[in-house]
Structure formats: C-alpha cells, structure tokens
Design brief:
Elements lengths: L2 E6 L7 H14 L4 E6 L19 H5 L9 E3 L5 E3 L16 H5 L8 E6 L5 H8 L3 E6 L3 H16 L4 E9 L8 H8 L3 E6 L3 H7 L12 H13 L3 E4 L2 H9 L6 H9 L4 E4 L2
Parallel strand pairs: 1-5, 1-6, 2-4, 2-5, 6-7, 7-8, 9-10
Antiparallel strand pairs: 3-4
Helix pairs in contact: 1-8
The structure holds adenosine-5'-diphosphate and magnesium ion (MG).
The site of magnesium ion (MG) has 5 residues, from α1.
Length: about 280
C-alpha cells in the first residue's frame, strides 16, 4: 500500500507546486507509481504546470460525488498520473474539502506515492490537504516573512498530529542575508531535508510545461529533488556528476547538513558516487 505526502506551506509562491511536480517526476524516474493531486482547491494550477488546460474530470467532480477518484486520474507524458483541480466558474459551490482523505484513500492501493499539492492559506483547504496526508513536507524560503508562515504550518501540523518528515528550503541564492539552514532548523525544530537553489532552469521548465527533473541536465536543483525522491523511498542515489568527483578529490568531502539529515532519517538512503 502506498502513502500520501502533503506538500505544504501557508504562503504562495514558495514552490509547492514546483516541488510536487519535480518530486513526482523524480519518483517516477525511479520506477515508482506516482499520483499528483491538486488540492489547491480555489486556485488549482498543478495541471497547468504540465500543459493540461481542461481536465475532463477533476477533483471538484470527485468531491461533489459526481465521479470516482480513479475516474478523475489522467496520465501525463512524464511517467506519473495526476488528478487535476478545476475552478467552477458557473456557480459558487464549495464542496466538502474534508472529504478529500476518504475520496483518495483507495488510490493508495494503486500508487506507491501520492503527492498532494496544497493551497497557500490556512483554512479548510489546507487542513483538508493536511488531513489527507500520511506525512508532510513543508516548503519554505530562507527569509523571515516566509519562516513565520512556516512556523505556523509546523504548529498546525503538530496540533493535528500529522507527522512532518522535514522541510525543503527552496529558492536559495546562497547569500549571507538569507536565513541559514541551521537558523531555520533551530527556529522550527524540524530537520531540513533538501536545499533547492534558485535556478533559472525551474521557471524555464514551467514555461515549457514539463517537470524540471525531466531534463537530462543535472543542475543542483534537479539533483536535490532527485536525492529527496530517493530518500523518501529509502533508496540510494547515484551521483554521476563529474563536479562531485572533482570536489571530493580537491576538497574535504564534508557532507552538507541536509544530506546528513537524509541519511540519519532514512538509514536505507545512501549516496553512491560512480567511478
Ligand atoms: N528553485 C526555484 N528557482 C527558481 N524559481 C523557482 C524555484 N521554485 C519555484 N520557482 C518559481 O516560483 C514561482 C512560484 O512557484 P510555485 O511552485 O507555483 O509556488 P507555490 O505553489 O508555492 O505558490 C514559479 O514561477 C516557479 O517557477
Ligand atoms: Mg501552487
């Protein structure tokens, strides 16, 4: 039976949808069966990241009881499936979002991993996504404004007793003015499991309607998403990059903190360098 992982942050623009797509793609590339669910009910855009403009059946229909969740599944060109969201422009009707958990429960028999993208506001939408998740990954950026939202997300998850696997720090420039990984861990009390740099490759992939991890080019962001995917399923990640070998040769092979966290949190996760 598979598991559902909610991708959360109570703030817009930090990279929830980007992370959902990149991780989903990286997990599919590892041969896992993966489903992405757009639980950003009032502003769904997960399908748009993949060029699906008008889904035939959406999560909206599922929550209204008009369709079965399996019937709402659409295949993508990237080895994973998706249940898209849809705005109802004709009349304002709010389905019971809290039914999400019950509606997608049986899909765990069909998929290894279900990634749930979520909304940026702390309301019943985010709560529905949280409660439908077996565990959570919280996305943050390294600034005070976002960190206050991240703290809030951590607090609510703890109140609701939904386990947090860890944090993803996204859009990192590597500048001194940014909050450090250590500061973020100290303030939130949650381990950081991935540090994704701010990379032009990410919005470029969005413009080209494909997951960033689908490209052959192994940029830092892509590698970090791939490592996180390997960690989530307890597998090893083969680092084939020449730059890694070079660094290991010339510099001390001190591991970054997020790598240590991944290795500590999932003992079966390993990094292998190819010779
Ligand atoms: N690591 C990154 N580097 C550069 N741009 C990024 C990165 N992550 C996300 N973005 C860009 O930020 C914008 C918002 O990302 P998105 O995933 O839609 O955020 P959210 O779902 O949290 O609202 C998008 O244009 C996306 O391409
Ligand atoms: Mg989003």
């Amino acid at each position: 039976m598979g598991e559902s992982i909610g991708i959360l942050s109570i703030k817009g623009g930090v990279g929830k949808t980007t992370t959902t797509v990149a991780l989903g793609s990286a997990l599919a590339q590892r041969g896992k069966s993966v489903l992405l669910v757009d639980a950003n009910f009032s502003a769904p855009n997960l399908a748009l990241h993949l060029g699906i403009v008008q889904p035939e059946i959406s999560l909206y229909d599922v929550l209204q009881g008009k369709a079965n969740a399996l019937g709402a599944v659409e295949e993508t060109d990237y080895g994973f499936d998706i249940i898209a969201g849809r705005l109802n422009m004709k009349k304002v009707f709010y389905p019971d979002y809290m039914k999400l958990k019950e509606k997608i429960q049986h899909l765990k028999y069909h998929y290894d991993v279900i990634l749930i993208d979520s909304s940026p506001t702390l309301d019943h939408e985010t709560l529905a996504a949280m409660m439908a998740s077996d565990k959570l990954l919280i996305v943050t950026t390294p600034d005070h404004a976002t960190l206050s939202c991240t703290l809030h997300a951590v607090k609510v998850a703890k109140q609701k007793k939904v386990p947090i696997v860890g944090l993803i720090i996204n859009k990192v420039y590597g500048k001194k003015f940014e909050l450090s990984l250590e500061q973020i861990e100290k303030i939130t009390g949650v381990p950081v499991l991935a540090v994704v740099p701010h990379e032009i490759n990410i919005p470029k992939a969005l413009a080209e309607l494909r997951p960033s991890t689908f490209e052959a080019e192994e940029t830092e962001a892509v590698v970090e998403y791939k490592k996180l995917a390997a960690f989530l399923v307890g597998e090893s990640y083969k680092d084939k990059r020449f730059s890694t070998k070079l660094k290991a040769f010339f510099f001390s092979s001190k591991l970054p903190k997020q790598e240590i966290n991944r290795q500590l949190k999932n003992k079966s996760y390993k990094i292998e360098t190819e010779n």
